[in-house]
Protein 1
Amino acid sequence: MRTDLARFFNPRSIAIIGASQDTVSISGQPLKHLLSHKYPGELYPVNPKYPEVLGVKCYPSLAALPKAPDLALVLVNASRVADALRQCGKLGVPYAIVFSSGFSETGGKGIAMQRELAEIAAEFNIGIIGPNCQGMINPAGRVYAGFGSIFGADYEPGRISMVSQSGGFGFSVMNLAALDGGLHFRQMVTTGNEIGVSSLDFINYFIDDEHTDIIACYIEGLKDANRLISIGNRALEKKKPIFAWKVGNTEQGQKAAASHTANLGGAMALYKAAFHQSGIIQVDDIQDVIDYSRAFQCGKLPAGNRVAIITISGGAGILMTDECVARGMQVPQVTAATTDKLRDIVPSFGSLVNPIDVTAAIFSDLTMISRTLNAVLDDPNVDSIAMINASLMGDLAASVAREIVAVAKHSKKPIFLTWSARDSVATEAYAMLDAEKIPHYKSPVRCGRALSALSYYSQALRRADASRTVPVPLITSTDARDMLAGKTDDITEFAAKQVLARYGIGVTIEELATSREQAVAHAKRIGYPVVLKVQSPDIPHKTEAKAVRLGLASDADVADAYDEIVRNAKAYKRDARVDGVLVQEMVTGGIEAILGVTNDPLFGPAVMFGLGGIFAEVLKDVAFRIAPVSKAGALEMIAEIKGYAVLTGVRGAAHADIDALADAIVRLSALAIDLKDRVAELDINPLFVLPKGKGVKAGDALIKPLSAVDPAQG
Amino acid sequence: MRTDLARFFNPRSIAIIGASQDTVSISGQPLKHLLSHKYPGELYPVNPKYPEVLGVKCYPSLAALPKAPDLALVLVNASRVADALRQCGKLGVPYAIVFSSGFSETGGKGIAMQRELAEIAAEFNIGIIGPNCQGMINPAGRVYAGFGSIFGADYEPGRISMVSQSGGFGFSVMNLAALDGGLHFRQMVTTGNEIGVSSLDFINYFIDDEHTDIIACYIEGLKDANRLISIGNRALEKKKPIFAWKVGNTEQGQKAAASHTANLGGAMALYKAAFHQSGIIQVDDIQDVIDYSRAFQCGKLPAGNRVAIITISGGAGILMTDECVARGMQVPQVTAATTDKLRDIVPSFGSLVNPIDVTAAIFSDLTMISRTLNAVLDDPNVDSIAMINASLMGDLAASVAREIVAVAKHSKKPIFLTWSARDSVATEAYAMLDAEKIPHYKSPVRCGRALSALSYYSQALRRADASRTVPVPLITSTDARDMLAGKTDDITEFAAKQVLARYGIGVTIEELATSREQAVAHAKRIGYPVVLKVQSPDIPHKTEAKAVRLGLASDADVADAYDEIVRNAKAYKRDARVDGVLVQEMVTGGIEAILGVTNDPLFGPAVMFGLGGIFAEVLKDVAFRIAPVSKAGALEMIAEIKGYAVLTGVRGAAHADIDALADAIVRLSALAIDLKDRVAELDINPLFVLPKGKGVKAGDALIKPLSAVDPAQG
């Protein structure tokens, strides 16, 4: 597929297939908008019905064009799109935007029709955008290739580029952000059903586009989600933040997303994991895009997530503290040295505790502002400053802004401002701040949120740097690959744990017995007490079948238990294949965790961690990461779950071996990658996490081979 | 204390004590602002230094005034405030705003100085506002009695009244909401350290103020929080919504709140409970106040929380679905009859599944809009409609708005709109919507949030109506009161459960034994198996002392266990007073829950519910309510916790007796009220919740008498 999208955004000539003289209709609008915005290239309306449209010579067919256009806009009825595309292909048209609806979003026949379009695009190497989309705007190139009322406005070119799977929503963001929010766009493109050039293709292009500093996207579902992390990391390397709306966050929203674009919704948990792993910043509303863009335009990144809040309004300081802390920042105490410096400046009815309440008295002597800011900037506990100036306006506002600008010029630490004066009464002050790119917001909540986004991004950058230094270890095992080759049935405990062991994941000591006598012999070697469990591919729920016995302490007990288990297994399921009875060391004193692998059709292999029992089952308190996972990433996963305190010791319980647990997650993620063509799902449940220094042991495990899930993928 | 606040907001005369000629200083500003806004009453600057200030005759002292003013503004230094207030008192001044800082917020001497002000206010019955506050604005009365740059602007009178504990933040809200958001205020007052007239006094006044429709407040902490629910419920009765910022939501924010106003922060959980119980709507940012006010101004309340979303942008529809569902609304399917009607209107590439994607084709024939809206309004599954019109602008927008207005006029169900066109390109459309008070928002997220707020409020109203029909039962027990009279030590299990039993709360069958023989006799009567536990006020952690034995099944076991427990108890704590050994039925098959009472110094008695083990301990997964709690309220509490599924049966476990559990919560809340002068804290841990129909049984209980916590309150 074509990826040289510069030509798409800057076509030298455009054919409008199905151009109409009715400028209100969808097929009449693109030509009208291209003309009214003075598109500088050549325009070729194509419609056998007209000799000209809007004063532009109209051609009866694509074949009649004087030369192949760089871009075709396809506006004909769904049933005629395939034919139009084939003609484009024959002519060598590199890009086509298909506006027409009536494809996969309608189900039924539309799905087959859409498949045909994809086949034509592949055959002729056409970069298709759409179908069922609303077009593209490149203000700098005066390319307004689409329909909808917002195409009537003129947009100033800027440095944010956006791709949206929803036309209506995407263009409303551009319109409001640009004209009311002062945030200008380099490019805006909508992708609809996205059968050709995908959202990630566009993001990938924006990363290299020298005119783009910030990337935004609206995502319902990505068919190529497995590229998300690598593209996200490339954006991190190029220091281009990505803001993402991912909709379908609630179960019902997810359903709506599925019905809307006929995309696979993908599990929100995996999206969230992928965003986290690649520093992609989730946004909720249009205001976020405007506010966060302003934050990133300051050009400074905090070295850590510790903010000092300096305020003349105690109330606003508390609001901002709440917002920053809720979003993962710290509002730490400043050092004693800083406190001493502040004591000379702040009046006694202020507060020297962060949030630092300097009171409005600070404005009575302007040098106090620079003294305060410098004292706090010098503090080693502080990575950024958020200053709250309430509604300060007029000349005093201008003087205060001048002081702040003078300090900020020489500071590497970002300074953010909450300043509630309306634009018209602090014009001079705001102009000075804008010139120096000092972010300022009308409310403490918006300011705190934007600073937190910058801080989150900066943390992702540090994480990415660290992971380049310490690459994630890969493990390969031909043994394990061979063990799983050709399997279609579930791989049960004994065999599954042998696979785990190949990747260095701790498992219980155990042996398979096929007779009473062998069971006793194994038990003696392993040491009492032991556990006995049936091994059968036909009995996944061993406890339910009464085919598990715990804490067996003598030869006689083991012998009896052996018989009982085989008997119960047969009683539970008459024709169950019984491989034998597993004799296993009895693990005590550990905390039960769950580790899992899911080989997601969209994202590829991902790992899951949670605590056992109600944590995973009732509370869904689990953490996901797309594989591979580094040691640092695994530690983060572990700390992320709400039940984390269970591992660090509640009620005097021992601190669990979190280091070994993290190591097991890393190894499991390596397994997931090594066996990604063999394993559909893998569950370790329970994984016993023993006290610190004692490691972890898989107590039970189950592997669903890939072919068992979908033979086509096997 | 004075509560006739109409006179405070509409004073006929104002004395400005400490008026200054320096109009930039805090003490110089109030007179300047009162004059520039043409305050219609009499003004009396008081300052011995000047014969006149700003052309107004100045008096050397309060005593020299021609008559007592209705309101005094106190602007003198903290050390001279007490004297000024005393003079006010002698003169019979009913209200004083104390602007001066330097009181409890500075700690130390300031606390004592503040106490003195409160005493003077009480002695002379002065309604004090402040100290450490920023004043008040009543635009209709042209009373601009305060300082700060926002006092320079002129405000149009409106129908929202606000009280704020933070001056800087409160006035910035008013300024931005009024001048940028078109939301106009009836009154705005700030209360600072709030030693006199409290935020709740002001809210109470606003409820009865015929010029106020909507009330807003900014709260750091309420010293009279126990009035919150009754005042909230009075507001519900009068149908006046209250929007509340409660800051200090995070632990750190809470700390900041405490240091800022020296108010007791109060536990956020109790505030949230009280808000929920009285329909108070929490807001996060200024935009919420503007958006929610617009929602309430529509004058229609949804009869339930089910919304139908009608959209021309699939993407925006999903965003709104996410937002509504996340905020507790339902986006249900419409009936088959409605679907049939819509099938005739919506094109095949649209979607008939809620969110209903009607596509932009709906605008090609305007009658389709009214047909769609009417079809959905008629649906019995739908309580409100949210329609999304993307960026529709100009003449078409006006025609669409006309259709919507025509339908909305005759609908009792609220219709909300997301309409992203900028104000300047949909002027006519927006004017029509505004005239009909149809709420419209630029983004689907803001629209969904505002509709959810309206829905939450409407649900609170229904809850309040229901609770008037079925009043919460009160239970009194003189027995229980007597049992707790004069107690200072913890009341341990046996006695505590006897108290519970007096209120009809199920407890285990048990007897206290003081000898081996008695223990065996009790066990025989109760029936095997039994549990034995030491009873000692000196051993709160019985298990730790190895003074509990479970599952005793024979006379001999009981006899031995008796001796062992007494021995272990003495070994654990040599001089422990041992009341005896409790012989108790052994409860099996129940789910362990925790019930508690906390007699909060601010809120009074509150009840807590959670599940046992890690739910409460690690996850803090508990629900609070201020007592009394109705049966419906108790059921809501139970369903609110994240672990709720444990009670409804996970993995084939039995459905627990939720009805009996709710009944126990109601009874416990009645106990909490009946014994509020006796009980500081009460814990039932565990409460065994037996399978459906089998009730609940308190397995252990502990009461901390009130005098044990604070003798002053006893």
Note: Chain A touches chain B through 96 residues (CB under 8 Å).
Protein 2
Amino acid sequence: MSAKPIAGPEIERLIQLLARLPGLGPRSARRAALHLIKKKEQLLVPLATAAAEAADKVRVCSTCGNVDTADPCSVCTDPRRDPGTIIVVEDVSDLWALERAGAMSARYHVLGGTLSPLDGVGPEDLNIAALVDRVVSVANSENAVKEVIIAVNATVEGQTTAHYLADQLADTGVKVSRLAHGVPVGGELDYLDEGTLAAALQRRSDF
Amino acid sequence: MSAKPIAGPEIERLIQLLARLPGLGPRSARRAALHLIKKKEQLLVPLATAAAEAADKVRVCSTCGNVDTADPCSVCTDPRRDPGTIIVVEDVSDLWALERAGAMSARYHVLGGTLSPLDGVGPEDLNIAALVDRVVSVANSENAVKEVIIAVNATVEGQTTAHYLADQLADTGVKVSRLAHGVPVGGELDYLDEGTLAAALQRRSDF
């Protein structure tokens, strides 16, 4: 690889920034930059505008930790959502994934990560105290939270965090639940790990 | 999939535009957008600026068809490059790939595609006449072109285009060559197609 840049500095800068996106390496960033340049009016100019507008408008919701262009976010202010159910997720991407599934019309709470003592992430680094406050503050109102669904990843860190959360919420009296383990829909048994298969057998349901 | 947008319109617009980049689908575009939003100052704001600057500055080189922020491009104006050799490529991405290889310090000519009668792409749709003009115009000067290397893809369309180009250049008297066929460096014979193996055997060199 020669170190000299192939194109002008503005193009090189665009390539460098695109290469920092997840899912794009140096080679695909170059391809993406070239695609943007070739479709300048349809893609590059709109992207510049959209990125500037998003940067200007984006807010972190002070209630739940979601990102949106309004604070409180559109999920927190949606009157059709059940205020009695809060789904706790690690990250905004998990919130988006659950919204795509469209299975529940609940509110959310974004932790911003998981407890990880090895990486120095303790309870005070996550959005946990705000969750307990949120549950306690509405305890005797008509918007009282009835159930907190802990929807963290099924990793060791996720499960540690889930146990800590359940402990913290124990005194509030709300029901605390978590996602089911089992065979993914469309999944083939042969490709699943032993833990998942054991959980699916153990928690089998009547046919 | 619910049709309703998950986040504000500015964020949705950013996701939609990112999803149109090669290598990013709808899901990875959402992940990329979220990454940009989370790193607003380090990534989203610089990307907006870089995209706007690139859109403002980018030019198609009127000599060779390369994209750059100058016209003629930095390759065409580089005095250290041999003006006697022109490497003909299909696309700017091929020019970049050959520059990364750094094997020759020549000039380029970007065709902008390949002949494809089925898709209605004829010689007049490609940057072919300009190549012949370019060769003819300097014929008796000190910058006379001595060799045109046809570096198109080893596809049917590429080879058809190569033959057409060789015909067009026949009267100019310049040497016309093309890339070698053979075993890719690091390639395993077992995974190569018959055509490549036959070519590698036929064009074998002395050890």
Note: Helices of chain B lie at 9-18, 26-38, 40-57, 92-101, 129-137, 156-169, 194-202.
